[in-house]
Design a protein that fits this description.
about 130 residues; 7 helices; about 75% helix; about 0% strand; extended; membrane; transmembrane helix; transmembrane; Branched-chain amino acid transport protein (AzlD)
């Protein structure tokens, strides 16, 4: 015999409150809620922009967003300390050299993935040497 949906919904607060005995149900609910929370911010922009003509200037502007975000993350990690958030121009020498190598790789390949992989390899090799 199966459980009817009304029975499950009427007992949901009790089932979720008793976490010690129903960890599987609790984890399933958390997973479903997390999936919904991850899905909604991705779905609504697609739904909104799929029926509209996007201006050319917006598309041109959006081409620079991934590069600028990537640059901001890299510059923060290379030149800002985590203890006090101070600017340190030569605090991570191997990462500065790796960033220069990434710039060269990105210039010639125009590929974000190849640049990231090249940067990771460069940091790894330079951290072993320097």
């Amino acid at each position: 015999m199966g459980i009817k949906m009304e029975q499950l919904l009427s007992n949901a607060p009790v089932l979720l409150a008793d976490i010690g005995h129903n960890k599987i149900l609790y984890h399933l609910v958390v997973i479903v809620l997390a999936a919904i929370a991850a899905f909604i911010p991705r779905y609504f922009p697609i739904l909104f922009f799929s029926t509209r003509k996007i201006p050319e200037w917006f598309n041109e502007w959006m081409k620079y967003v991934p590069v600028s975000l990537f640059t901001a993350l890299v510059v923060k990690n290379v030149f800002i300390t985590t203890a006090g958030y101070h600017f340190v121009p030569f605090g991570h020498v191997e990462q500065i050299f790796a960033a220069l190598i990434v710039m060269v790789i990105a210039y010639f390949t125009r590929s974000m993935s190849i640049s990231v992989i090249g940067g990771l390899v460069a940091v790894w090799l330079l951290s072993m040497v320097i």
